[in-house]
């Protein structure tokens, strides 16, 4: 995958352009590409699929971490904004 400098706000998103470029580079047929013999495993294709799967997992994990951190942040904000209910007085306090 390309490792260009990415702005901070883009780090939390899926990099569709990078994925599209990666897929295009590895799936476009050119004259330098070897032809797979029928009945034999295509090791280049298997390697590409494995690398693409790992990259998709990394990007999914990054987005998941961002969503989880934002959910936690919102939860903390709601707890600070929501007044806590007062505990009812104990029976012994009522008798006095």
Which SSEs are present, and which pair or pack?
Blueprint: H1 16-27, H2 43-81, H3 91-95
Helix pairs in contact: 1-2
Description:
With 96 residues, the chain is mainly α. The chain has a domain at 9-26 and 37-75. Helices cover 58% and strands 0% of the residues. It is built from 3 helices and no strands. It has helices at residues 16-27, 43-81, 91-95. Helix 1 (16-27) packs antiparallel against helix 2 (43-81). The mean pLDDT is 80.
Task: Give the ordered list of helices and strands.
Answer: HHH
* Percent of residues in beta strands: under 5%
Query: Count of DSSP E strands?
Result: 0
Note the overall shape.
Answer: rod-shaped
Q: Low-confidence parts lasting 5 or more residues at pLDDT below 50?
A: none
Taking all Cα atoms into account, the compactness measure Rg is 27 Å
SS content category: mainly alpha
- Average of the residue pLDDT scores: 80
Number of helices: 3
Largest sheet: none
The first-to-last residue Cα distance is: 74 Å
Roughly what percent helix? 55-70%
Summarize this entry quickly.
This protein has helices at residues 16-27, 43-81, 91-95. Helix 1 packs antiparallel against helix 2.
Write out key terms for the chains shown.
single chain, 96 residues, mainly alpha, 3 helices
């Amino acid at each position: 995958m390309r490792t260009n400098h990415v702005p901070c706000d883009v780090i939390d998103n899926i990099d569709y352009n990078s994925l599209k470029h990666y897929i295009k580079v590895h799936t476009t047929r050119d004259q330098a590409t070897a032809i797979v013999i029928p009945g034999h495993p295509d090791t280049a294709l298997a390697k590409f699929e494995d690398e693409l799967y790992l990259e998709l997992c990394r990007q999914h994990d990054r987005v998941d971490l961002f969503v989880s951190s934002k959910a936690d942040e919102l939860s903390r904000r709601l707890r600070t904004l929501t007044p806590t209910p007062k505990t009812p007085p104990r029976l012994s306090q009522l008798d006095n």
